[in-house]
Write a structure and sequence with these properties.
Largest sheet: 6 strands, mixed
Strand content: 15-25%
Helix content: 40-55%
Structural class: alpha/beta
Distance between the termini: 65 Å
Strand order of the largest sheet: 8-7-6-9-11-10
Shape: elongated
Number of strands: 14
Number of helices: 22
Radius of gyration: 26 Å
C-alpha cells in the first residue's frame, strides 16, 4: 500500500533534502528514505543577486534524482518548499517554474517565519519542553530562524540573513580566517541579533538547534569526546565546547578543516561562519546548553503535510518521556505488570539511597525507563534477551532523552541479568568513567528489583532500606509468603553489592515483628 506514504523536499541555500515517510498503524510515521545533495544554490548570490547557471543545473539534476526515488516508493503526495536562496534570488520564480516543468515537482517558496514554524513543529515532536523557556534556532545556508517559546507556546519568531553560506561569502576572505575578519563577522552577527531581538531577552534555559551547522557541531564534539552514539539527534553540547571548537576551526586552513573528525568535508568551507553564529547565539541568550534536533524543517513539513492530507487525523505532536517509554515497551509486547512492578521497586530503592549517593533526578528518570524496558529483548528471543534489550533501546526513538541518556538506559537494562559489567564489554568501556559507575549502580538496583519480582506477580508491596555497619538492610513488605522473592533478590544482588561496595541483607517485614 502506498496511499499512506508522503515525501517532503526542502530546497535550501546550501543543500536539498528529500525525506520519504510511511504512516504506521499506530498513527506515527517512519522514515523510508532520506536523501541529501549539497548543491550550493546560494553560491555567488551575494554579488550577483541571482542563482548561477552552475548552481541551477546542480539543483535541477539533484531534484530530478530525488523525484525518481520518490516515484520508486509509489508516493502520491509530495510537499516541496524553497527557502532563503530562492526567496532572495531575482530569478527565483523562474527557477521554481523550471523545476515544475522539468522535474514535475511543484515548489512553494516559504517565508522565514514559515521556516521557523516548521522547525518549531519538529522540536515539539521530539523534546519535552513543558514549563521550559527556550529558543529554537535553525541555521541554513542563507538564513537563521529563531523562535522563542515557553513550553508549547511560541512567544516570538525572527528570520535573519545570517546563514552560513551568506556570511562566508561576505566575511571569510582569508584561509585560515584572519582575526580581523572573525571580529568583523562577530560584530555583524551581534548587531543583527540586537537589532532584531532587542536588548530584553529574559532568561532562557536552553537552545534547541537544527540545520547542517548544528548537526556538524554535534558530530565534531561527539568525536572530540570519543563518543560514538550513532546519532546526534537530541545530543547536548556545552557552550565551552562551542567556544573551543570555534577557536580550533578558525586556526585551520580549508585542507585541515576537511580532516576534522565528525565534519563533512563538503561543509568545511562554511563551517567557521556557522559556528560563529552559534557561539554568538549562546552568548546573546546567555545559555550554556545546545540541544540538537537532527530532523528540523523537513520533518516539520512532514508533520504539517500529514495533518493537511488527513493521513494522521488529530495527530498528537507531544508525548511525555514516560508515555514514549511505555509506548515502546508495548510495541515489544512487554509484560507490563512485571515491568511496572520492577520500576516501582527500583525507584523505592533509588529514593532510599539518593540522600547518601546523590545520583540526581536525571539518573532516577534513566532508571525508571530502563526498568520499564529491561525485558523488551524478549521481542527478539528469550535467549540473551538482555543483550537484545540493549540494542533495541539504543536504537529506539525515545522522546525526551539525549543520545547519552539512551545509551545509559540501554546499558542499565543490559545488566539486569547474566554477566556483570566487564572490561571486555565494548559498549560498557565506551562510556565515560563516571557513566560506567552510574550504569553499574542503576543496573545493580534494576537487577535487584527484578529478582524481587521473581514470580512476576507483584507480591512485594513495598520496601525500606537502611544502612548499618557497612550492610544495606532491605526490608520487604508483603501480605503473602515471599521466600522465592527473597531468594531471587539475594541471587541478583551481586551487581548492587559490587557497585555500592556494601553487603546486602534481605529480610521479610514479618520476620522482624
Amino acid at each position: 500500500m502506498t496511499h499512506n506514504r508522503l515525501a517532503a523536499i526542502d530546497i535550501g541555500t546550501n543543500s536539498i533534502r528529500c525525506i520519504v515517510v510511511e504512516v504506521t498503524r499506530n498513527g506515527k510515521f517512519r522514515v523510508l528514505d532520506d536523501e541529501k545533495a549539497t548543491v550550493r544554490l546560494g553560491e555567488g548570490m551575494a554579488a550577483s543577486g541571482t542563482i548561477s547557471p552552475a548552481a541551477w543545473e546542480r539543483a535541477v539534476t539533484a531534484l530530478g534524482r530525488m523525484k525518481k526515488i520518490v516515484d520508486g516508493y509509489g508516493v502520491k503526495v509530495v510537499e516541496a518548499v524553497a527557502t532563503s536562496a530562492v526567496r532572495r534570488a531575482a530569478n527565483g520564480e523562474e527557477f521554481i517554474r523550471t523545476v515544475g516543468e522539468a522535474v514535475g515537482v511543484r515548489v512553494a517558496v516559504i517565508s522565514g517565519e514559515e521556516e521557523a514554524e516548521l522547525a518549531a513543529l519538529s522540536v515539539r515532536n521530539h523534546f519535552d519542553m513543558e514549563g521550559v523557556r527556550y529558543a529554537m534556532v535553525d541555521i541554513g545556508g542563507g538564513s537563521l530562524e529563531i523562535v522563542t517559546a515557553l513550553g508549547t507556546h511560541i512567544e516570538d519568531i525572527h528570520s535573519l540573513e545570517l546563514g552560513a553560506v551568506v556570511l562566508t561569502e561576505r566575511f571569510v576572505r582569508s584561509d585560515p580566517l584572519r582575526q580581523a575578519d572573525l571580529d568583523r563577522l562577530r560584530k555583524h552577527v551581534r548587531a543583527a541579533l540586537k537589532e532584531s531581538l532587542g536588548a530584553e531577552r529574559g532568561h532562557l534555559q536552553s537552545l534547541v538547534g537544527s540545520g547542517g551547522t548544528i548537526t556538524s557541531i554535534a558530530a565534531m564534539v561527539m568525536a572530540m569526546r570519543g563518543e560514538g552514539y550513532g546519532s546526534v539527534h537530541r545530543y547536548e553540547v556545552l557552550r565551552s565546547e562551542v567556544v573551543h571548537l570555534l577557536a580550533m576551526l578558525s586556526r585551520k586552513d580549508l585542507k585541515a578543516r576537511r580532516e576534522v573528525p565528525g565534519l563533512n568535508p563538503d561543509r568545511a568551507d562554511i563551517i567557521t561562519a556557522g559556528v560563529t553564529v552559534v557561539d554568538e547565539l549562546m552568548r546573546f541568550f546567555d545559555v550554556n546548553l545546545l540541544r540538537v534536533n537532527e530532523r528540523g524543517i523537513r520533518e516539520g513539513l512532514i508533520i504539517r503535510a500529514l495533518r493537511t492530507h488527513g493521513l494522521i487525523p488529530g495527530m498528537e505532536t507531544t508525548l511525555t518521556w514516560r508515555e514514549s517509554v511505555l509506548e515502546f515497551a508495548r510495541s515489544c509486547h512487554t509484560d507490563e505488570e512485571h515491568a511496572l512492578q520492577v520500576a516501582r521497586l527500583s525507584l523505592e530503592i533509588f529514593d532510599s539511597l539518593e540522600p547518601v549517593y546523590g545520583m540526581g533526578e536525571g539518573a532516577r528518570r534513566i532508571l525508571e525507563a530502563a526498568a520499564i524496558l529491561h525485558d523488551v529483548g524478549y521481542f527478539i528471543n528469550y535467549s540473551s534477551h538482555h543483550k537484545h534489550s540493549y540494542h533495541l533501546i539504543r536504537h529506539a526513538d525515545l522522546f525526551g532523552f539525549t543520545p547519552r541518556e539512551r545509551e545509559l538506559i540501554a546499558s542499565a537494562a543490559r545488566y539486569h541479568r547474566k554477566a556483570l559489567p566487564k572490561k571486555k564489554h565494548e559498549s560498557y568501556m565506551r562510556l565515560a568513567e563516571p557513566d560506567r559507575l552510574l550504569v553499574a549502580r542503576l543496573g545493580g538496583i534494576l537487577r535487584l528489583a527484578d529478582g524481587l519480582d521473581r514470580r512476576r506477580n507483584s507480591l512485594v508491596s513495598g520496601l525500606t532500606c537502611s544502612l548499618s555497619d557497612g550492610t544495606f538492610i532491605l526490608t520487604l513488605a508483603s501480605r503473602e509468603e515471599i521466600s522465592v522473592e527473597l531468594f531471587g533478590g539475594k541471587i541478583k544482588g551481586d551487581l548492587f553489592e559490587e557497585a555500592f561496595r556494601k553487603r546486602l541483607l534481605l529480610v521479610a517485614e514479618s520476620a522482624l515483628a
